[in-house]
Amino acid sequence: MKARILASARRLFGENGFSDTTTRMIARDVSIDVSTLHYHWGEKQDLYEGVIGAVHAEIMERFQEVERRCRDVDLARRLEIAIDIMCDYLFEHPEVANLILFGYFRKADHTAVLDINISQYITNIAVAMELAPTPETVSVRDRARILAVWHSVLNFIAGRNYFRPMLDVAPVPYVRVVKETLKFILVPAFTAETQASRKS
Amino acid sequence: MKARILASARRLFGENGFSDTTTRMIARDVSIDVSTLHYHWGEKQDLYEGVIGAVHAEIMERFQEVERRCRDVDLARRLEIAIDIMCDYLFEHPEVANLILFGYFRKADHTAVLDINISQYITNIAVAMELAPTPETVSVRDRARILAVWHSVLNFIAGRNYFRPMLDVAPVPYVRVVKETLKFILVPAFTAETQASRKS
DNA sequence: AACGATGTCCATCATATGATGGAAACAATC
DNA sequence: GATTGTTTCCATCATATGATGGACATCGTT
Question: What is the dihedral of CA B55, B126, B75, A87, to 10 degrees?
């Protein structure tokens, strides 16, 4: 039951955000009483943290997958692999994109465990892309650049119901358009610079 | 008074979103009673629409400025001008970035006037960049690409308190990092393709 | 000064929401 | 079958919030 509540909370928090999701909505979605929810998860905030924690763990798994599949591959291909994996994951779990973006806006204490640690994600990607040898040596520029792309992925997916009609494409092609767009923007930028620095 | 309420509402809605901003918060910010607020603006939703309307008008003005300053300038420079103008404007009015992003998530009727019409913005930029001769002829690809950059701008600014410490830069350099990052990503991507197509 | 229009505040209402206590159902162990 | 621990539900509370009605104030016009 605790797990069923978590799953429902994850979906609803993702759809409506923290404030616009009531404990009663979640309870009704699972067909239980509100007090049962509180029995298992304590207060609303605790349930929310449970959701964030689970999502965080999932994302870290995906990054490890990126790292595994990027070994002995050149930069352009590494970027493509990273985009493909993250897009596939997020399109399959679109509530994750929403949850992360909602997190930006929460006026909570951003030092808490509650927060999804974006910095960690960014650094992980940078290292997986071999833009730097270790997490400590990732430059501000590279982090900012990865961040920009990470934003784009999240926004394309969190705002899919908004942007898809605007682009006038069906759901399946939309995935393709998003991937192509990201690759189009990202790959030339990074590979061009790397080639230039290698020439010297 | 009506204007003072609007200004306060704009700031607070931008900080907290629609649901987490109460009419009492706004009233207290302007040092008036809640009923005075309702007297001037009707229900909360109407006030919110007032804010969105004002912001929308402001943004359209900026796009016209972009268009003016982009005449008789080559593509790379046009892109830089657009990024500079929009970044300067949004860094000066960061609540605008928040309001637009909050709009993505609102579960409202997205056909209403309430919505900030992103599609219109995107098309306007594409035409100003001379990626297409008329608004009707802007391709899906170009719209998606502009959209991706537009996302990045908004996220960098809406999430500035989140990302700036993460990048470990001071407020002033942060603006520079954001602009540089956007240009780094955007300019090569678009100019490379244009050059390629012009070569043939 | 009288009057009406406009603006502002106080008191109040109805509702939604987070949360809890206690009773009842259920399950496991002896 | 009794006992104990766990889970679920019903009833209820305290509070926050959107919203309104009516009284008072302010100001310009006559």
Answer: 90
Q: What is the DSSP track for A132-147?
A: SSSGGG--HHHHHHHH
**pLDDT, tens digit (0-9, with 9 covering 90-100), for A74-115:** 888 888 898 999 999 999 999 999 998 888 776 655 445 445
- Check residues 98 to 137 of chain A and report those whose beta carbon is under 7 Å from nucleic acid strand D: none
For the stretch B68-73, contacts whose Cβ atoms lie closer than 8 Å and that sit 24 or more positions apart, written own/partner, are B70/B128, B70/B129, B70/B130
Residue B79 with chain A: CB contacts under 8 Å: none
CA distances (Å), origin A190, targets A138, A175, B128, B176: 14, 23, 26, 19
Amino acid at B102: F
Q: Taking a C-beta distance cutoff of 8 angstroms, is the pair A86, A153 a contact?
A: yes
pLDDT of res. A33: 93
CB contact under 8 A, A166 and B20: no
Contact B141 A186 (CB under 8 A): no
Question: What's the angle, vertex CA B35, arms to CA B30 and CA B40, rounded to 5?
Answer: 75
- Kindly state the tokens that stand for B75: 């593509």
Asked if A33 CB < 7 A from strand D, the reply is yes
